[in-house]
Automatic annotation (TrEMBL):
<dbReference type="InterPro" id="IPR024920">
    <property type="entry name" value="Dihydroorotate_DH_1"/>
</dbReference>
<keyword id="KW-0665">Pyrimidine biosynthesis</keyword>
<feature type="active site" description="Nucleophile">
    <location>
        <position position="130"/>
    </location>
</feature>
<feature type="binding site">
    <location>
        <position position="217"/>
    </location>
    <ligand>
        <name>FMN</name>
    </ligand>
</feature>
<feature type="binding site">
    <location>
        <begin position="45"/>
        <end position="46"/>
    </location>
    <ligand>
        <name>FMN</name>
    </ligand>
</feature>
<keyword id="KW-0285">Flavoprotein</keyword>
<dbReference type="InterPro" id="IPR050074">
    <property type="entry name" value="DHO_dehydrogenase"/>
</dbReference>
<comment type="pathway">
    <text>Pyrimidine metabolism; UMP biosynthesis via de novo pathway; orotate from (S)-dihydroorotate (NAD(+) route): step 1/1.</text>
</comment>
<feature type="domain" description="Dihydroorotate dehydrogenase catalytic">
    <location>
        <begin position="4"/>
        <end position="286"/>
    </location>
</feature>
<feature type="binding site">
    <location>
        <begin position="265"/>
        <end position="266"/>
    </location>
    <ligand>
        <name>FMN</name>
    </ligand>
</feature>
<dbReference type="InterPro" id="IPR033888">
    <property type="entry name" value="DHOD_1B"/>
</dbReference>
<feature type="binding site">
    <location>
        <position position="191"/>
    </location>
    <ligand>
        <name>FMN</name>
    </ligand>
</feature>
<dbReference type="InterPro" id="IPR013785">
    <property type="entry name" value="Aldolase_TIM"/>
</dbReference>
<keyword id="KW-0288">FMN</keyword>
<protein>
    <recommendedName>
        <fullName>Dihydroorotate dehydrogenase</fullName>
        <ecNumber>1.3.-.-</ecNumber>
    </recommendedName>
</protein>
<feature type="binding site">
    <location>
        <begin position="69"/>
        <end position="73"/>
    </location>
    <ligand>
        <name>substrate</name>
    </ligand>
</feature>
<feature type="binding site">
    <location>
        <position position="99"/>
    </location>
    <ligand>
        <name>FMN</name>
    </ligand>
</feature>
Length: 303
C-alpha cells in the first residue's frame, strides 16, 4: 500500500506533493538536482496564447517570511510549450498540470484548444487570479458570475479535468468557489498570492517596477489555511492547497483543513530539495499521528 497516494480527477498521484506554478519553471533547472519522478505532479509555468516577456525589472523583492513578485506571466507561449517543454517533462513519471492564463475569454479558450492537442497534459489549472498583469488574470477572479462563465467555457473545450486557481483578494472566497464549482470545475486551487507592495526606505518609491506585486511564502499560510477550511466545508470537489508550505507539518495542516493535494511554491527558492525532503518525512509524521494513509487526515479540522 502506498500511504501517500492520492486520487483526484485526472490525477492519480503517488504522493500529493507538486510545485506551485511559477515557482518551478518547467522543471529543467531542478532536474539536475533530483529525479522529478519522485513528485506527485508538476504544475508548470503559466501558459498563454502568445509569448510573454513579463514585467519590467525589478520584479522580485524579499519580505519578512515571504516574497513579493510581479513577474507578469513570462512564458514562451503555448505552441513552444507544447512542442518543447511538455514532451521533455513527459519523460518523468509524474503528472503534468498546465497553468492556463489569458487576457480575454477568447484568449483563454484559444489556448485551451491548443492544449487539447497535446497528449502530455493531465489537467489544466485555470489561472484567474494573477495580480501582476494589466489585462486578464485577477479580473476574471473577483466576480463569481464572470469566473463561472470562463470556467464553463474552458470546460467545454478541454479534454482533461479543469482546476480553477482562485485569488485570496476577494471579500467572499466561498462564493467564488461555489460559482466555479457550479460551472463544472473539477477542482479548485487555493490560494494565489496576496496583493502587496514595498517602498524603498531612502527614496520612498515602490521597490517593484510594477509598483504592486503578489505576496507569497510562510507569511500567507494562515490566510491560505483559513480559505481552504472555509471552501472545503462548503463544496464537494477536491482542493489543491497552497500558500506558504515549507515542511511536512505544513502539508498535514493543509490536509486537516480539507485539501486533497498540495503545491509548494516559494520554499523551492530557499531550498531546492524541499519537496523530496517533505515526501521522505511524511510517512514518519503519519506514524506519529497514528494514521495509515495521508487521506485519513483530510478535513480533521471540520469533522
Amino acid at each position: 500500500m502506498n500511504r501517500l497516494a492520492v486520487s483526484l480527477p485526472g490525477l492519480e498521484m503517488k504522493n500529493p506533493i507538486m510545485p506551485a506554478s511559477g515557482c518551478f519553471g518547467f522543471g529543467r533547472e531542478f532536474a539536475p538536482l533530483y529525479d522529478l519522478s519522485v513528485l506527485g505532479g508538476v504544475m508548470v509555468k503559466s501558459t498563454t496564447l502568445e509569448p510573454r516577456f513579463g514585467n519590467a525589472t525589478p520584479r522580485v523583492a524579499e519580505t519578512p517570511n515571504g516574497m513579493l513578485n510581479a513577474i507578469g506571466l513570462q512564458n514562451p507561449g503555448v505552441d513552444a510549450i507544447i512542442e518543447h517543454e511538455l514532451p521533455w517533462l513527459a519523460q518523468y513519471d509524474t503528472k503534468i498540470i498546465v497553468n492556463l492564463a489569458g487576457s480575454s475569454k477568447d484568449d483563454y479558450i484559444a489556448t485551451a484548444k491548443r492544449l487539447a492537442m497535446s497528449q502530455h497534459v493531465d489537467a489544466i489549472e485555470l489561472n484567474i487570479s494573477c495580480p501582476n498583469v494589466k489585462a486578464g488574470g485577477i479580473q476574471f477572479g473577483t466576480d463569481p458570475e464572470v469566473a463561472g462563465e470562463l470556467t464553463a467555457a474552458i470546460k467545454a473545450v478541454s479534454l482533461v479535468p479543469v482546476y480553477v486557481k482562485l485569488s485570496p483578494n476577494v471579500t467572499d472566497i466561498v462564493a467564488m468557489a461555489k460559482a466555479v464549482a457550479a460551472a463544472g470545475a473539477d477542482g479548485i486551487s487555493l490560494i494565489n498570492t496576496l496583493v502587496g507592495m514595498r517602498l524603498d526606505y531612502a527614496t520612498g518609491k515602490p521597490v517593484l517596477a510594477n509598483t504592486i506585486g503578489g505576496l507569497s511564502g510562510p507569511a500567507i499560510m494562515p490566510v491560505a489555511l483559513r480559505m481552504v477550511y472555509q471552501v472545503a466545508s462548503s463544496i464537494d470537489i477536491p482542493i489543491i492547497g497552497m500558500g506558504g508550505i515549507s515542511c511536512a507539518r505544513d502539508v498535514v495542516e493543509f490536509f486537516s483543513a480539507g485539501a486533497s493535494a498540495v503545491a509548494v511554491g516559494t520554499a523551492n527558492f530557499n531550498n531546492p530539495y524541499v519537496m523530496p525532503e517533505i515526501i521522505d518525512e511524511l510517512p514518519t509524521l503519519l506514524d506519529g499521528l497514528g494514521v495509515v494513509s495521508i487521506n485519513d487526515l483530510k478535513g480533521r479540522a471540520w469533522l
